[in-house]
Write a structure and sequence with these properties.
With 371 residues, this protein is of the alpha/beta class. It has helices at 4-8, 40-51, 81-96, 149-168, 183-188, 203-220, 246-260, 274-277, 286-294, 307-315, 326-330, 334-339, 358-370, and strands at 11-13, 16-18, 22-24, 56-63, 101-106, 119-120, 145-146, 173-180, 226-235, 264-268, 297-301, 321-324. The strands form three sheets. An eight-stranded parallel β-barrel has the order 3-4-5-8-9-10-11-12, surrounded by seven helices. Helix 2 (40-51) runs parallel beside helix 3 and helix 6 (203-220) runs parallel beside helix 7 (246-260). Bound molecules: flavin mononucleotide (FMN). Flavin mononucleotide binds next to strand 4, strand 8 and helix 11.
Length: 371
């Protein structure tokens, strides 16, 4: 039976107090003016989730360096003072509305739809085709060049500098995007990483870049600044991928992340629901494994805007927090609706008919409200 209290009761990630267990999942909105500087419209968009009662907001994936990290045109960055200042406005207004906000740090690697000259762990053509709606670049992804060791150092420095800037901008923490097929997931994944150095081969080696980034970030931010990591089996260009050794892979990955010192692990399900993305091919729960093995805060994702499903995930101890993507787009006030027994609106893909920008969403909302 639905236990609203379980979803809506107070909780915390380490010292970061949260008013409930609901999280806005990171969602790229490609809504800057090309300079990567967050806009007032983005401020309004993020503040709306805080006003709507979400316990935690994770920002869209934000690029970390000026070399090879940017995924999409108009994606926000955190690489210079102006971008940092733009984010500062967002953290202030989110906090003023009673919310908590964590920045997702993202490197596109071979899946960049912004660059023609891309980098990845190995020179392997990404499978499938570029995402529609995020960039004029469409069709096949370019063949990336394999990163050399100094380019890998640049990636690590980019994440560290970005984390320091995020703290200065007033964020409550950062989330390292190691999911969904982007750079760090490319290192982790067997078929996109054929390196023969310390970053390839065994699964421990394939985790190494993420582990090094976490370790170094811990040295440059304050002790109470939250460091999370997002991980997934599925990818934007391979929804059905599962870790070949299921729980054994999970055990190695989660242990490495815990030992590196993360405060939470966020397990994403790319688009098809918790049972599709968060279970091994034998049906075992990866979030539950992560929770039992590490004792860290675990965030689960995938179709959890259905309150019964969110309740099940918490009740059955798969996770401590539930992250909503499309459900939050359709209900910026999902926690308030749940609290007050107001009907939860189903996500309507038409919201993206004119693009995935915030502008397009606001216009679509106006037009549907006017009907
Ligand atoms: C418009 C859009 C943009 C997204 N951008 C990101 C992103 O920047 N970083 C990320 O980790 N996941 C991103 N995702 C994936 C979501 O965080 C989430 O994992 C996915 O929507 C599944 O959750 P849901 O069933 O609650 O929608 C995006 C999803 C959508 C719909």
């Amino acid at each position: 039976m639905l236990n609203k209290t379980l979803i809506l009761e107070n909780t915390a990630i380490k010292q970061l107090a949260l008013k409930n267990k609901t999280v806005v999942a990171p969602m790229t909105r490609v809504s800057t003016k090309g300079d990567g500087i967050p806009t007032q419209q983005m401020e309004k968009y993020y503040q709306r989730y805080a006003k709507g009662g979400f316990g935690l907001i994770i920002t869209e994936g934000t690029y970390t360096d000026r070399s090879f990290s940017q995924s999409y045109p108009n994606q926000p960055g955190i690489t210079n003072d102006k971008q940092q200042k733009g984010w500062e406005n967002i953290t202030h207004s989110t906090h003023a509305a009673g919310g908590k906000i964590i920045m997702q740090l993202m490197h596109a690697g071979a899946l960049s739809q912004h660059l023609s000259n891309t980098r990845g762990p190995s020179s392997i053509q990404p499978i499938r085709r570029m995402l529609e709606g995020y960039s004029k670049k469409q069709g096949q992804y370019p063949l990336p060049q394999a990163m050399n060791l100094s380019e890998i150092d640049e990636v690590i420095n980019g994440f560290c500098n970005a984390a320091m800037r995020a703290e200065k901008a007033g964020f409550d923490g950062i989330e390292i995007h190691a999911a969904n097929g982007y750079l760090l997931d490319q290192f982790l994944t067997d078929y996109t990483n054929e390196r023969e150095d310390q970053y390839g081969g065994s699964i421990e080696n394939r985790c190494r870049l993420t582990v090094e980034i976490i370790t170094l970030i811990k040295n440059v931010v304050s002790r109470n600044f939250i460091i999370g990591v997002r991980i997934s089996q599925g990818k934007v260009n391979d929804f059905n991928y599962t870790w070949p050794n299921g729980l054994n892979d999970g055990e190695i990955i989660f242990t490495a992340l815990k030992n590196a010192g993360v405060d939470y692990i966020h397990i994403a399900s790319e688009g098809k629901g918790f049972d599709h993305g968060c279970l091994t091919r034998n049906g075992e729960s990866l979030p539950k494994l992560a929770k039992e093995l590490t004792g860290l805060t675990i965030i689960a994702n995938g179709g959890l805007d259905n309150p019964n499903e969110a309740n099940r995930i918490l009740q059955d101890k798969h996770a401590d927090l539930v992250a909503l993507g499309t459900g939050a787009l359709a209900n910026f006030d999902w926690p308030t609706r749940l609290q007050n027994d107001i009907t939860i609106t189903s996500f309507n893909p038409d919201i993206f008919a004119k693009g995935v920008t915030i502008e397009a969403q606001f216009k679509w909302e106006e037009s549907t409200n006017a009907e």
